[in-house]
């Protein structure tokens, strides 16, 4: 073999870490010989340790990518040194190549049992030593890079989780406070954000002394983009900034929103929505729906009524039109408005619950005068865990 072959054998891919070789051997002649061999690996650092008592400390400071450990030294067993490297946190994973004049199979087996990665009879051929140093160093550096990438990813995930938590808190801060009971009505709600940031938003506010606007929207998908769109839509409703729109006319509101938020300009995102206006003077509720689950109106007596209305999801078709049905609200009635995340949960049998059992839960809540917490618990019991894959948004209005 000639030195001309060295580059082809020892050439390594570019790494973010330098190859560092540490030799622990009491014979300085061996140390110098190995140093000269290692010098032929470009960019490689070498550290010689003649005193094994200080090897661990030197290794922690030098941070080698491979350790060459002599087997037989005065006062110290080389295999004990291998065990010490393995027991020390800073060197536990650093490759160790045992150097020995012995070629017995048992000696080699004992070295591997102690934690060695490789075994060379010294002094080895230069080409073989460099090849093994390069091989073990590359493997160790790959491990370091993997661990660093994992830690960076973990840190990024923690930052993302913090940002998502802040976003969830921001969305919650925009939600209205429950309405205390008056002579006319009272409201309550439960909002449980999904494990990922979702796109639900809802609200209610007085348009004048008699008319109360009520709405809930659900943007498709999850993440910051969906949350931003839901907040944007909620803000234009709250601020009444849709042009040429009567906010007491639900069909006009959905038509204007459909024109203002086309999915082509919002990353392919669209949203379902229900918007209603309750008039305390006439006890009428006028409403419109854009592909949203129909709210449930539970009267004090008689059959519950689903407030369904034909209308396309908002943002999909430019020319979509919306109807605005009107329903009379009797005293003692309770209105429930909700997103599909309230009932589209997985059951233990692997099937998804549909809306009908959820409507039964709402009617039980209304007739027994229970709080919305009873509905939340009932749905959690169905899926047998407390977390929701989609936003859980549930509004309740009691009319007196």
Textual characterization of the structure:
The chain is of the alpha+beta class. It has two domains: 145 residues, Response regulator (Rossmann fold, 3-Layer(aba) Sandwich), CATH 3.40.50.2300; 225 residues, Phosphatase 2c, domain 1, CATH 3.60.40. It is 36% helix and 22% strand. The protein is built from ten helices and 17 strands. The strands form four sheets. The protein has a five-stranded parallel β-sheet, with helices on both faces. Strands 8-17-16-13-14 form a five-stranded antiparallel β-sheet, with helices on one face. A five-stranded antiparallel β-sheet has the order 9-10-11-12-15. A hairpin with a 4-residue loop joins strand 11 and strand 12. The protein is elongated. The N terminus is likely disordered.
């Amino acid at each position: 073999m000639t030195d001309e072959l060295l580059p082809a054998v020892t050439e390594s891919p570019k790494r973010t870490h330098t190859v560092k070789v540490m030799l622990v051997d009491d014979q300085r002649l061996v140390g110098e010989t190995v140093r000269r061999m290692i010098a032929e690996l470009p960019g490689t650092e070498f550290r010689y340790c003649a005193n094994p008592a200080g090897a661990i400390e030197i290794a922690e400071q030098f941070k080698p990518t491979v350790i060459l450990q002599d087997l037989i030294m005065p006062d110290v067993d080389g295999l004990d040194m291998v065990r010490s490297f393995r027991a020390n946190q800073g060197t536990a994973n650093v490759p160790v190549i045992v150097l020995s004049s012995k070629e017995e199979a048992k000696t080699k087996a004992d070295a591997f049992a102690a934690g060695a990665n490789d075994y060379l009879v010294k002094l080895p051929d230069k080409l073989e030593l460099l090849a093994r140093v390069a091989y073990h160093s590359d493997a160790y550096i790959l491990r370091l890079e993997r661990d660093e990438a994992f830690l960076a990813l973990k840190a990024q995930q923690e930052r993302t989780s913090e940002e998502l938590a802040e976003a969830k808190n921001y969305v919650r801060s925009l939600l209205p406070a429950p309405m205390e009971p008056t002579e006319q009505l009272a409201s309550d709600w439960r909002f449980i954000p999904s494990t990922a940031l979702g796109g639900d938003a809802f609200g209610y506010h007085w348009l004048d002394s008699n008319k109360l606007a009520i709405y809930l929207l659900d943007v498709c998908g999850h993440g910051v983009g969906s949350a931003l769109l839901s907040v944007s839509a909620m803000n234009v409703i709250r601020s009444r900034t849709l042009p040429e729109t009567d906010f007491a006319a639900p069909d006009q509101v959905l038509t204007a929103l459909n024109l203002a938020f086309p999915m082509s300009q919002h990353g392919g995102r669209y949203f379902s929505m229900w918007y209603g206006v309750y008039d305390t003077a006439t006890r009428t509720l006028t409403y419109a729906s854009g592909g949203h689950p129909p709210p449930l109106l539970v009267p004090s007596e008689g059959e519950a009524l689903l407030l369904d209305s034909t209308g396309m999801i908002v943002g999909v078709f430019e020319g979509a039109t919306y109807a605005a049905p009107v329903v009379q609200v009797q005293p003692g009635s309770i209105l429930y408005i909700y997103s599909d995340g309230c009932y589209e949960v997985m059951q233990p049998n692997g099937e998804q619950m549909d809306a009908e059992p959820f409507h039964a839960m709402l009617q039980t809540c209304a007739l027994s005068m229970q709080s919305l917490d009873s509905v939340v618990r009932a749905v959690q019991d169905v899926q047998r865990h407390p977390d929701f894959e989609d936003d859980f948004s549930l509004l309740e209005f009691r009319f007196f």
